[in-house]
Design brief:
Elements lengths: L2 H26 L4 E2 L4 H5 L7 H5 L1 H11 L5 H21 L2 E2 L10 H12 L9 H8 L3 H10 L5 H21 L5 H7 L1
Parallel strand pairs: 1-2
Helix pairs in contact: 1-4, 1-5, 5-7, 5-9, 7-8, 7-9
């Protein structure tokens, strides 16, 4: 198997697991507890133009899988899977949502945000899988601001998602075996 196919397979196994668990939790959970904005959330105004940075997440993840060193792919895939399992358990045990601000602008950014809102879960806020996966893909700070800017999550969601990403990443780094020679051969 060539290296690109191997990388795409790892991405499907990692990120695909996230999508499956995220959507399953959204479908089967009870109505969520409405989280209230904290002081940091109130300092950052709602701005639909942040949708562009927010959506860069969907470019960042494939880049992470396609560009990271081959020996880190197993760690990345497993970290994504464990983050999805942990977040999914919280989503089911304690569903959360927000009071989303109205998006009544008629700019391209507002239209794109409306499209995102129509397909994204209004629940699954705490912990933020968006943030956990961003941390795992090593580009958390710039995207974190846009997550609050768009009011897709609150600051507490990001802190919990950051903690989840760091904890799972560390556990996978510590306990997941390095690729075997067979896997290394398959990746080249």
């Amino acid at each position: 198997m060539n290296n690109t196919v191997f990388r795409l397979r790892q991405m499907l196994l990692g990120w695909g697991c996230v999508g499956l668990l995220y959507n399953s939790a959204d479908r089967w959970q009870a109505p969520g507890t409405v989280l209230q904005p904290g002081a940091i959330d109130r300092l950052i105004p709602f701005d639909p133009s942040a949708v562009w940075l927010y959506l860069s997440f969907f470019l960042l993840i494939p880049v992470a899988y396609l560009a990271c060193p081959t020996e880190r792919l197993r760690w990345l895939r497993t970290s994504f899977q464990l983050s999805a399992l942990a977040a999914g358990a919280v989503f089911m045990a304690w569903p959360t949502t927000l009071s989303y601000p109205p998006n009544d602008g008629n700019s391209l950014s507002s239209s794109l945000l409306a499209a995102l809102t129509s397909i994204d879960s209004a629940q699954n806020c705490f912990p933020s899988l968006h943030m956990a996966l961003t941390v795992l893909a090593v580009w958390g700070l710039a995207i974190a601001f846009s997550i609050i800017h768009l009011r897709r999550h609150l600051f507490i969601d990001l802190v919990s998602g950051t903690g989840l990403g760091l904890a799972v990443g560390w556990l996978c780094h510590r306990f997941v075996k390095l690729p075997t020679r067979l896997e290394e051969g398959a990746a080249t």
